[in-house]
Amino acid sequence: MREMEALVHAAEQAQAGRGQIVAAMAETGTGKLRLFFEFKVVSQSDWIVLEAFSVSHGKASAYLPVLDLLHSYFDIKSEDDAAETAQQLMVLAERRENPSTLSDEHHNRGFTLLSALAT
What we know:
Blueprint: H1 2-15, H2 32-42, H3 64-73, H4 82-95, H5 104-118
């Protein structure tokens, strides 16, 4: 199955340090969820798997899956305001085992963007 081969190739690239994003686009009922489920089962690893879903009513914004992913990963609730979201992102960043080498200015810009996207 060429779709599974593409997923395996992306995983190998990620393992080699070249980050990957994989998307599956097809008609409803064609097995997209099943494909990813089987891939996760077959390729058990210690990776963090981030998932986002898109729905037809979200076609107006290509960012809806990204927003869903950010909300889920950072445990952002819809009732959180921008200040709470920014604070939560900063706390999570400080907990990371491998601190980034980016400057404070880059951190601030990144968290401003994440905060804006996540609210």
